[in-house]
């Protein structure tokens, strides 16, 4: 009887050992399926500073993954998407341009607003024209640079101009807010209408002049995974990363508001 009990116990121990070995073997299997690849993001030019930081953080948290970001005016990015650009994610500086993507059925899931932004006047550090508010931009002799109307910062500029009754006479209208900022930095303009975040990112290269009328044209920033995204799963992870705590922290540091 004792011999039988010993044999049964030994068999049970052997089976348990086999089961443990199978369980241990599942660990490397999950590591082997770790996602790798390149996530291609089309992002509004005003997101450059913050998205560059988020790219670095996302890549660090996802070994083997590369985030490739193309920055431009939102209207230009929509044109790329409708022309068949092979991208995974689109982040717009306004709802109007995102609506064009949705209307064309080129989004995968409902776009989500992840940040808000508003206009600020950028002037050279010495502010030679003494710009103190929005109305000063219309004064004779002020060389002003703004965004073109189809661009979100241009649409916001037009909205403020109409709301205040101040008619602006810009020397040029640019297709991206970063070009407006660059012209002020280069001394080619006395003032430029950009976003709060652009002024913050420029540091001492420009001086920011806030104006209360900017509250009349606050832009919501939506983000979406694109239909037929080559890296759909990773794209969804990137969007959630932007909308999560890390994203809000980085975006907040350059002046974006939480929606």
From TrEMBL:
Record PROSITE patterns: PROKAR_LIPOPROTEIN
CDD domains in the record, alphabetically? PBP2_ModA_like_1
Q: Which residues form the signal peptide?
A: 1-22
Please give one Pfam family short name: SBP_bac_11
Q: Which UniProt keywords apply?
A: Metal-binding, Signal
Which InterPro entries does the entry link to?
Answer: ModA, ModA/WtpA
Instruction: Please give the organism.
Output: Kutzneria viridogrisea
- Matching NCBIfam families: modA (TIGR01256)
Q: Which domain of life is it from?
A: Bacteria
Q: What is this protein called?
A: Molybdate transport system substrate-binding protein
Q: Which Gene3D superfamilies match?
A: Periplasmic binding protein-like II
- Provide the family line: Belongs to the bacterial solute-binding protein ModA family.
């Amino acid at each position: 009887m004792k011999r039988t009990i010993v044999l049964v116990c030994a068999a049970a121990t052997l089976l348990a050992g086999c089961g443990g070995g199978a369980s241990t073997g599942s660990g490397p299997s999950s590591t082997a399926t770790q996602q790798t690849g390149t996530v291609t993001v089309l992002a509004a030019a005003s997101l450059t500073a913050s998205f560059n930081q988020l790219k670095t953080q996302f890549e660090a948290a996802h070994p083997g993954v590369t985030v490739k970001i193309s920055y431009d005016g939102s209207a230009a990015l929509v044109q790329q998407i409708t022309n068949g650009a092979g991208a995974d994610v689109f982040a717009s500086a306004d709802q109007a341009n995102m609506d064009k993507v949705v209307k064309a059925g080129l989004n995968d899931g409902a776009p989500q607003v992840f940040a808000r932004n508003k206009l600020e006047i950028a002037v050279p550090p010495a502010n030679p024209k003494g710009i103190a508010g929005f109305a000063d931009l219309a004064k004779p002799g002020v060389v002003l640079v703004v965004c073109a109307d189809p661009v979100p910062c241009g649409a916001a500029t037009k909205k403020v101009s109409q709301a205040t009754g101040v008619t602006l006479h810009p020397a040029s209208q640019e297709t991206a807010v970063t070009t407006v900022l660059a012209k002020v930095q280069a001394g080619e303009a006395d003032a430029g209408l950009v976003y709060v975040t652009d002024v913050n990112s420029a540091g001492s290269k420009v001086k920011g002049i806030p104006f209360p009328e900017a509250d009349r044209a606050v832009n919501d920033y939506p983000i979406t995974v694109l239909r037929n995204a080559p890296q759909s799963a990773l794209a969804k992870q990137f969007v959630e990363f932007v909308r999560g705590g890390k994203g809000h922290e980085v975006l907040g540091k350059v002046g974006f508001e939480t929606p």
